[in-house]
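In the previous chapter we treated chains in isolation. Here, by contrast, the input contains two separate entities that must be folded as one system, with a combined length of 442 residues.
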Amino acid sequence: MNSVCIIATLGSLNLDVQAEFNDEIIVISGENGAGKTTFLRCLAGLEDCQGEMHIKGDIWLDSAAKFVKPTEQRSIGFVWSDAVLLPWLDVQANIALGVNDADATWLLKVCEALEIDSLLKRKPIMLSTGEAQRVSLARAVYIKPALLLLDEPFSAQAPDIRLRLRKALKDLQQELNIPMFMVSHDAGDAKVLAKQHWRMREGKLIVEVQTKAQDKVINDE
Amino acid sequence: MIDSLIISLQLALTTTVLLLLIGLPLAYVLAFVSFRGRTVLEVFVALPLVLPPTVLGYYVLLMIAPDSWFGSAWDSVFDSSLAFSFSGMVLASLLYSLPFAVQPMQQAFRAVPTSWLELGQTRGMNVRQMLRYIILPASKSGVLVAAALSFAHTMGEFGVVLMVGGSIPGETKVASIALFEFVEMQQQTEAAQLALILLFVSFVMLSVVYSINRKPLVVSS
């Protein structure tokens, strides 16, 4: 079981989230400014926050003991809401960025699943927005992280490929056997992918919808 | 005349190479690290832009005098005096051209998108890897501008090299000083030739700088 208990203040946002989760897919939705992206960034260690985080049996944050594991040591696959590809590297080099011992079989498997295996030698400038987004997803998955954090990873995908990508992503997550947070405004993502569906409002977790289960209020105003 | 040009070129080349090595960590610190005394460091780096070269030359002379601690330490290690030597001129040029190396790199480093730096963090990169795989490739044009400006500015030195080098023919007499002496001795032909060569070198270096700056930050092949 993984658990997070985070308090952070950023500008006008007061983030206050407590939750426990298995190595499962959690879809987060909510209005703009509700703190979804900030929550992902806190998990990644990219924003300062207080509290505790236990991920895959490892302590990432323990404010009581003044311990913060830096982002570099957290083993995270992060997908930003824009692709963030390095323009001077081709697709393959972008995916393998920072990895010393390349795993060609795994790389090909991930790229085939996300339908970018024919693009490996292309420069990012030659990619469509949707393709670039899938490359950034492949890059996050490729390192076999302890935690996947995806900020609207399908926002630029056409409806038909989106359906295939959901299945592909679910398969990859199950193979890695890790928790995965996915910010999405698409009800379909939550329905098909999520074991838990969270809603956030004004920095708080309002309802946690167990898919195919009754709603459970865990943190009301 | 050829002698003085060769000395100028050697001085400019040596200074440029050393300045890139010294300027890189300085630019990194000024671009990314906040610490007490940052402003003071920034001012020190920028000082040669406004100081009369003779003031800089005066202090360098004091510093490298055989009875100063630095001068005597150098003397005992290398068994030669810095004053009126090529090495002394290199030292003075390093200080004199420092802002021309540091400032373009610092600006280029600061222009690297935050998300690219965060990407490096999520890939477990340390500072050295971050520089190698993200910051330097993204700042290629800034580094080239720094090199071109350092070279051109060192070629154009007069006051500093005159005070520190002392215009010893074949040793420390650089082209700009040789030109001055040709004019003094009314050797018009030589003066005209040398002036034209120096004008040409400066023109070429500045053309390089402006053509680099015209291109977008990242040039993809």
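The helical segments of chain A are 36-44, 91-95, 104-113, 129-142, 159-176, 187-193. Chain A touches chain B through 24 residues (CB under 8 Å). Compare these points with the single-chain example from earlier in the chapter.
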